[in-house]
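Sequence only, no structure available. Ideas?
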Amino acid sequence: MLTARHLLLAWLLAIAPLAIAADVPFLTGRIVDNAEILSPATVQKLTAELKSHEERTTNQVAVLTVKSLEGESVEDFAVRVFQQWKLGQQGKDNGVLVVVAPGDRRMRIEVGYGLEGTLTDAAAARIIRDRMTPRFKSNDYDGGIAQGVAAIVATLDGAEPSSGASAGTDGATSGKGFLSFLDSADVSEFEKDLPPWPMRILLGAFIFGIIGLFTIVGVMTPGMGWFLYLFLIPFWAMFPIVVVGVKGALLLLVVYVIGFPLAKLVLRSTDWYAKAAKEMKKSGRATVGGMVITSGGSSSGGSWSSGSSSGGFSGGGGSSGGGGASGSW
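Reply:
I predicted one. Tokens follow.
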């Protein structure tokens, strides 16, 4: 039964993120430089460019710099600013917000729903990676924001942004292939959004406990164990990502794909495995390590069925409040 204490606790948990969240500044112009990292000349130049772009297209592009996010994620902060500033035309949702927080070394390009097809998440990530990040690393905020805004406007106008840094990066990516993907900004950005380590340890105990147990059963089961080998490949490919990241999950998948057959080959030379294989062929049941394994689709008592599987894994959908991309330097 809910009590006043429970309701108070729920209310406190609900407002806690708001209590520590950074304030949304007033919209005083197309460039709101609260962090004071831009020169007056850059502010004037970008204001004129964005005004001209809005007059031509009705798209509203704004830039906000803040010293710190006050512990809030740049994604949540950008959504709050976007919603309060109401960028874009009503019914068109054609606004774009660039947020830069030098104190936290974080940035984001938040894109309104109406422009997601033009300024895609991949395009926004590319602008952050190729245009803004290299200059921010050199403390060139004027150049980084100016280049980022120019690339955003060019993309919205339907032109492919051209840059020496961008071309060089693309060439390096095509040369390195898959290894370059593992070091890409998209992978790094994804891994920054993983749960904190205490939660990842708990998730790991749950995930690896389940797929690890089925892996052991598959290795120990004569014949039908190969069904589990194939069945578990997608689980080893995806679930470990939330615990060890993309690179760690890839390493575990390689270990599983190679290690499972090797383990079965080693076990085949043991007497108890040969005995279990004979029992399985004769009666469809075998006792391995005190565990009864059947080759059918059902089992009784404490036995495991090597021919059965559980497909009760599902995911839900959600909304981030708009497309875009984030980055750091």
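Strands lie at 31-33, 60-65, 95-101, 106-111, 285-288, 291-294, 304-305, 323-328.
Hope that gets you unstuck.
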